[in-house]
Amino acid sequence: MNSFGQIFRLTSFGESHGKAIGGIIDGCPAGLEIDLDFIQNELNRRKPGQSKITTQRDESDQVEFLSGIFEGKTQGTPIAFQIRNKDQHSSDYNDLKDVFRPSHADYTYIQKYGTRDHRGGGRSSARETIARVVAGAVAKLLLKRVGVSIQAYVSRVGEIQLGKPYTELDLSQTESNIVRCPDVETANRMIARIEEAGRNHDTVGGVVTGVIQGVPAGWGEPVFNKLHADMGFAMLGINAVKGFEYGSGFDGTRLSGSEHNDVFIKTETGVRTKTNHSGGIQGGISNGEDIYFNVAFKPIATLLKEQNTVDRAENEVTINPKGRHDPCVLPRAVPIVESMAAIVLADHYLLNRINQL
Amino acid sequence: MNSFGQIFRLTSFGESHGKAIGGIIDGCPAGLEIDLDFIQNELNRRKPGQSKITTQRDESDQVEFLSGIFEGKTQGTPIAFQIRNKDQHSSDYNDLKDVFRPSHADYTYIQKYGTRDHRGGGRSSARETIARVVAGAVAKLLLKRVGVSIQAYVSRVGEIQLGKPYTELDLSQTESNIVRCPDVETANRMIARIEEAGRNHDTVGGVVTGVIQGVPAGWGEPVFNKLHADMGFAMLGINAVKGFEYGSGFDGTRLSGSEHNDVFIKTETGVRTKTNHSGGIQGGISNGEDIYFNVAFKPIATLLKEQNTVDRAENEVTINPKGRHDPCVLPRAVPIVESMAAIVLADHYLLNRINQL
Amino acid sequence: MNSFGQIFRLTSFGESHGKAIGGIIDGCPAGLEIDLDFIQNELNRRKPGQSKITTQRDESDQVEFLSGIFEGKTQGTPIAFQIRNKDQHSSDYNDLKDVFRPSHADYTYIQKYGTRDHRGGGRSSARETIARVVAGAVAKLLLKRVGVSIQAYVSRVGEIQLGKPYTELDLSQTESNIVRCPDVETANRMIARIEEAGRNHDTVGGVVTGVIQGVPAGWGEPVFNKLHADMGFAMLGINAVKGFEYGSGFDGTRLSGSEHNDVFIKTETGVRTKTNHSGGIQGGISNGEDIYFNVAFKPIATLLKEQNTVDRAENEVTINPKGRHDPCVLPRAVPIVESMAAIVLADHYLLNRINQL
Amino acid sequence: MNSFGQIFRLTSFGESHGKAIGGIIDGCPAGLEIDLDFIQNELNRRKPGQSKITTQRDESDQVEFLSGIFEGKTQGTPIAFQIRNKDQHSSDYNDLKDVFRPSHADYTYIQKYGTRDHRGGGRSSARETIARVVAGAVAKLLLKRVGVSIQAYVSRVGEIQLGKPYTELDLSQTESNIVRCPDVETANRMIARIEEAGRNHDTVGGVVTGVIQGVPAGWGEPVFNKLHADMGFAMLGINAVKGFEYGSGFDGTRLSGSEHNDVFIKTETGVRTKTNHSGGIQGGISNGEDIYFNVAFKPIATLLKEQNTVDRAENEVTINPKGRHDPCVLPRAVPIVESMAAIVLADHYLLNRINQL
């Protein structure tokens, strides 16, 4: 289904080559100042054609708000927005109308719905994430008021791993390079790796790390809507994501309990933990420490090279797509990861208002 | 919040040392035969005291159904059930009333709710998963009718890794040993590792792998309720889980697209894929191949040794818990993982009934 | 489905002759003192056998709370409760197993579910409202803290109409008589009317009026969850209800706009309205004036006299039910109406916490 | 909140003088042919300026679909649409910016949200029902495939009552006159009554009756989402509605049970009821008979005459609105009532797919 969130709730619409992508944000409190430049800038961080390592498609992706904002502020009413689709070379896809591209959603959409808009992936296109970035930008504005910051960066491309934890990085450097890795030396190696993939008409995957600071203790709704469960749900709903881990994650399972436990200590600013294997969440509720997590992105399925497959009539066919596609989704995934994290947190911020008398 | 699922929907209740744990299953179709022995047996797979490597607490955990079943069949009405709590040494916890145990939910519950039932972890206790196992057992009965099987097993304990993929294992052997690893040799090493942890008054984490077979193409509800996103949400909501990956997962992000793509082929039984890095899900919808995933469990936070912490008055204190606790959650987590997977699938089975005219 | 409310949310379970009726209340804030005597007393107002004009079945209906309350206070965790069914003369219903009683749910349940628990109406029995009264009592305790009172009374039985608006009545007299009409003279005529129906082995319908005082301006969630829309939804979900109107209701549609409009005036206690045709709700949001509404209850379908009907095999048959049944549902409906109103208001009280920054 | 329906789900957006009114329909099955002319025609039935007894504002209200439809058919993906607002004399409302118009939502919106878009009523304007009519038209197309028809008509204007039940009327005549009453003689009297109100700068209320035919037995989801409870919820959410009754309604409460019960009979087309006081719904589930109901609309609050009130600073002021407003909402309410009924039924049609194995 196409709604996300309990209170701060995005409903998303749009196909890649339809008239528009957009959505409705319900449940945003009234009185929030909407900084349109900030929102457009967030969209620009996601858009294609922004650098030599992303697709050269030119999608300007201008957001138009249709409701919910009056005299620059939210009204407590639903905030609708659209981004018209342009630059659609829909006919590029004619040859693919009845073909099941490997590791795409062509086959499963046909099986589920009996029909599909084949142009540019239709609803299954990552172009849909535009709606998430707009809603995420609004959520960021809401969270900023309560001191919460959300930052993501590329921590691995293929085998090129950023070897330091976020605590040893200067996250303000993330936007200083086109791959969005805050360590310049690693960033350059990642860029080279992506360019290599592009030259090979191939693609490469990797990992985005998210870091959230300023969340007070108390956000999260056990037993099912634990903060990290909603966060993982949000991340796994992003196109191409294959895994999610938070805090110590998969590696932490190799530690013994005595190594893994985060001992509580008394500090000048109150109760804190000495270590943070918990990733800022205990029992599904934030404990005031930093929240951090990793999101795994598979290599993009669209290859600009020959591949065998079958078509809807079950004939064996060979495809060799043309066009302008990303060799690596990671750099453009950074604002999407941040946006979904922001929506989750905005929702939990509001949900937490009801827990005490 | 305490409900899970859109249509096949579990609402769970109960604290560890309250009167009962239980739940209500809404949305189960009418006419399903309820095999009470099967359900009780699933609960027995989860219960404490079942082997030398689990806690020796004796909790018999008898389920009583209160509604929704008549003459052995579901009625389309809500199915309520309870498991009364017994053998509660609540006074064991008196010393911990105002103490924040490291990496437990004590601190965050107090921060969120201003109060908590400290006895045995209260609502944050894994004892709550009893409700999930009962609902999961009902879901399994529903899914069995449509040919879906769900099997989980322990694939890693600490550093002891089961080195084979599920396709090279005989999953019928999972229940042949107390650690629930289908490879006997590895199982023995895992058991030794858990016993070692127990001797050290320490704990150890690991990984549970889930395998689902028989799901037809078409289950999953993009764009947010992708089948793997709901599956990850379900797993991350289980106590002690720190990560989730499906199909090729985190490792798959190291492959190039040409290595990772699953080529469609024509077979006697219709369209299939040659490889299955997709883990049976493409674009968030099942494609008819096996679904498989990994779930990371941290080492249990309760250690039977001295630890430093602070209490509610922010005094520094030392705790040294007594009692009967698991040194490793993995063996008992297997039926819980299966149960949550079953609930997710039952829900998507029903949701998929509405997609076509 | 069997859940009611967005935040303060009741999930109800139970069949008339099953093991228990009960429910789970999710979303009640932590820290609320639970007055068990008050809750049991609310249940007693609903129970059969409380007077000569209600059924003489003796159902003691003792509530047992299973979770969510610790040391007398709510914990922010789900509050589960059950009321065990007793005094079940299930065999009384054997003759009715395959018969469709006129204006009951026998036929429609079979058509919908293909099966039904025929004993005492099964899930369609008004005995299910026990769950609502318990949840409503908890909601009343929550609302009392913010100064909201909820009172209902019987304003018509058959043709016997209480001729005064609530503003001219002493609502503290409602419980002074067995029909729950605050005007003693009218009450006596109503009682006589119900006794007459009983003597005729017939039944009689009527109207319950609800009055809510102390709701501040601002509760209600347009455009769909208008306060009166949720209130009407709640009332129409009660067994035997055929209509709902609030404020000026159906009669108000006969007025002209200039007669009907509630003029705003300035008073010592702030902005008020001169009249209250709006029934305390404007644009779906409370305006601080009293909320009042009427609920129409049909005459109960169970008659202790011969009636023609057909059975499941489409044979024409004659039924002549025995047993102990109410000749009029109205007196016992009063606490049910209050309870559903309380649940709606508790929900909106909490929802309204999110509307402003 | 701004979403309606469980499966077939409309999320609505837009303020009266904002950029657009619109919505997203989620959960419509794939493969439904979309007749755009039919949908536009439904909108035209709702639009202002269509006759001498409605407002003379000229709002062309052209719907544009943005997603979810490909090659003329639904895709199972969200169907977004917008209707751009035109002809906005926003400055007409400058004088009313800080004034609380009697029986409007001005005061309550300010109390709830701390802000409001005052132009033309903002979000509280009945212009929002455009979104409902579009979604209702899609729902009608879906229901038509399964033989369900939905018809509404004006049955009372002020005191002018249509004296016959729907069974004695030719509903195909509803659209033959501008007041949408199928009895021509009564229609003429209603038109005269509305013209009289207009001449007096006053307004008049009334009743719309809805009739639904062709619903098979089995739709409706007890215990809370009874078919008539969802129907009443839908109707009470329409602007200016003060009451809802179905079947025998308020009047039926005057009957004795033996008069009111609908006896089952055997017919050539299966089990039917002899009478239909139940209004086609028993126990909250359709029984195959016609569903019929009444909806009470208050007289419109906007009067083109002088009225006293107060403003935001609590000054006593006099207002005397100018502009083009309806003297009676009833004729234009007919398609809105039908639309909400259609959305409710489409939702229950889909929900009912999950009740049996």
UniProtKB/TrEMBL annotation, chains A, B, C, D:
Instruction: Name the UniProt key words of this record, in alphabetical order.
Output: Amino-acid biosynthesis, Aromatic amino acid biosynthesis, FAD, Flavoprotein, FMN, Lyase, NADP
Q: Which cofactor does it need?
A: FMNH2
- Molecular functions per Gene Ontology: chorismate synthase activity; FMN binding
* First-tier enzyme category under EC: lyase
* Catalytically driven reaction(s): 5-O-(1-carboxyvinyl)-3-phosphoshikimate = chorismate + phosphate
GO process terms (BP)? amino acid biosynthetic process; aromatic amino acid family biosynthetic process; chorismate biosynthetic process
What does the entry list as the binding residues for NADP(+)? R46, K52
The protein's matches in PROSITE patterns, at most eight in alphabetical order, are given as: CHORISMATE_SYNTHASE_1, CHORISMATE_SYNTHASE_2, CHORISMATE_SYNTHASE_3
Explain how, and how many, cofactor molecules are bound: Reduced FMN (FMNH(2)).
**Residues given in the record as FMN binding sites:** R123, S124, S125, N239, A240, G283, K298, P299, I300, A301, T302, R324
Annotated pathway, please? Metabolic intermediate biosynthesis; chorismate biosynthesis; chorismate from D-erythrose 4-phosphate and phosphoenolpyruvate: step 7/7
Looking at the UniProt record for this protein, which Gene Ontology cellular component terms does it annotate, in alphabetical order?
cytosol
Reply yes or no: does the keyword Flavoprotein apply.
yes
Keyword Transmembrane present in the record's keywords: the answer is no
Name the source's superkingdom: Bacteria
Q: What is its EC number?
A: 4.2.3.5
The entry's family comment says: Belongs to the chorismate synthase family.
What HAMAP family does the record tag this protein with?
Chorismate_synth
What exactly does this protein do? This reaction introduces a second double bond into the aromatic ring system.
Q: How does it assemble?
A: Homotetramer.
| Entry protein name | Chorismate synthase
The record lists the organism as Aquipluma nitroreducens
Q: Which gene encodes it?
A: aroC
